[in-house]
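In the current project phase, work has continued on tokenised descriptions of protein folds. One protein thus recorded appears below exactly as we store it.

——
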Amino acid sequence: MQRALSCASGRARDGRQLAWLVAFVLLAGSARASSVGRGLDDDGSTRNSNTRVVTDEAGRVVTVPADAKRIVSLAPNLTETIYALGIEDRLAGDTEYCDTPAAAKMKPHVGAPLSPSLEAIVALHPDLVLATTSINRRETVDALAHLGIPVYTSDPHTVRGMLDSVERIAELAGSAATGTEVVDRLRMRLDALQMQLADRPLVHVLFVVWESPLITIGQNTFIADALRWAGAESVVISKQNWPQIGIEEVVRLAPEYLVLSNHTGAAPAEIERLRSSSGWKELDAVETGHVIVLPDEVLEPSPGLVDAIEQLARDVHPEVFASQRGTRETGGEVADRPASSAGRTKECAPCAR
């Protein structure tokens, strides 16, 4: 385990990428309470007009303020969600890896998602803390609850689950109408995508979460669901959320495309690098230039995930989107494109973990 993390640390392009990788390694396979579909429904035990009792997505019963005014976010995807909802004025603090949009970097930080400072959180006087099972520890949530600070934990496993989380966060902040508007726009984009891809077969891809060690996705992750929305599916069938796989097995599985999620280089440069790398150069996908570099939002269950889905759909089904502006192919290689900024706030910057 330590060797894997040490290797990852040496390859990390910045701290935020490493935070997600470490979370994948440390939290993968650990027990998770199942999501509760009724989410914010009042269970009848509301204490007074200023609070209400809700069940969060990890199955915890939490007493939260009726209208949260000071929120601390413990994960980048939750911070991005707050900005997408336009309620950043209620964000009292976030983590040192919350950098999308760029304005999030100016908020007071409480440390890293896996090990935030309880003292720093308390000092911000939050009336609500947002956490997620994908990158935060249960011990952190329990410690804050012991201090009397309510924590709402999100746990989306699908794209629709992510949209539901966005609506719940908006409702917690007293912005239910805004949440509905934002989610409706995202759903319309996804529905339009499904109509365009309705008669297209799924393209088989290898999704690379990390290259050394080679980590990919299991079939029950939100990323696997995002692939399906884009008209693709993973060649790896695994019940593990973040399985490790050998390059020899990748060659045997022969994916049609490689999808890279943590690289800053453009696709053409990544293709040339892989063509000179042992093992990778044996893949037809590398030889034919079928290598896609996605923005790192694809690793986060937040509104930016829809941007990544749309980009992936354009790249693996170029024949469907050939007439649309922005679609371009050069020399048989899939050119890198920035994610669409539609639906984001005007301050949102391109993803750069």
